Amino acid sequence: MNAPTVLSLRGATKRFGGLVAVSDLDFDVTEHEVMGLIGPNGSGKSTTLNLISGALPVTSGTITLRGTPITTLPAQEIARRGVARTFQLVRLLPSMTVLDNVRAGAVFGHRRRWGHEAEAHAMRMLETVGLQRRAQAHVGELTYIDTKRVELARVLASDPKVLLLDEWLAGLNPTELEEGIALIRRLRDEGRTIILVEHVMDAIRSLCDRCVVMSSGARIAEGTPAEVLSDPEVIRAYLGDDEDA
Ligand SMILES: Nc1ncnc2c1ncn2[C@@H]1O[C@H](COP(=O)(O)OP(=O)(O)OP(=O)(O)O)[C@@H](O)[C@H]1O
Fold it and tell me: What separation, in Å, do the N-terminal and C-terminal C-alpha atoms of the chain show?
């Protein structure tokens, strides 16, 4: 039996004035799948995540979560329904402890928890990302990968059903990258549904069941990582992009 569809985009379009950042985009994400959303710089990947999470309204098109339209819902309501994302630039409160940052995710998320329950849950999430020993550290004292771990723990604390990772692996050194990939693999093995926006192709190859490739806002290919990364149109799109060439 096919896995149920969790998230669907149909004709999703976002214009910024004259610029079409996302153009008539269709794709489905099925349960427990890791879907890579890839493409050259400026192809519309982050904007697509912003449309899904409700951070930006669509210009036209529909987005459904388990068959229910979420297209016009405010971001907070979409988060409450179990869609959570990390940001390209980590957004944490540097003067607060690691634990307090993660606890904030437990309090404000999809499944709200308070007091001791929130704290115990936040500690479990810190264990998941391997940071339990730094619970009382201030975020400002952490290494870069550890701030990323905190952000992921904070997002996980809201018990998301759909996790949107926006270049979560960017900027890591090779050892950290291996750890990061192993961590995302563990989240996948726990049965989460993940959309991964990523430029690190090793991560795409080893983590994604399927990829959607965007170029200039439109979907230009879809398939397994091996299929799309050998597609001549995809190769052309990447080579045409100065920063990735
Ligand atoms: N708030 C905005 N206002 C105007 N233009 C925007 C805005 N956000 C994004 N854009 C433009 O939309 C296009 C798509 O940008 P987006 O950030 O979604 O691409 P991306 O694929 O995520 O790129 P990258 O890989 O570099 O992060 C770009 O041309 C960008 O300049």
Answer: 41
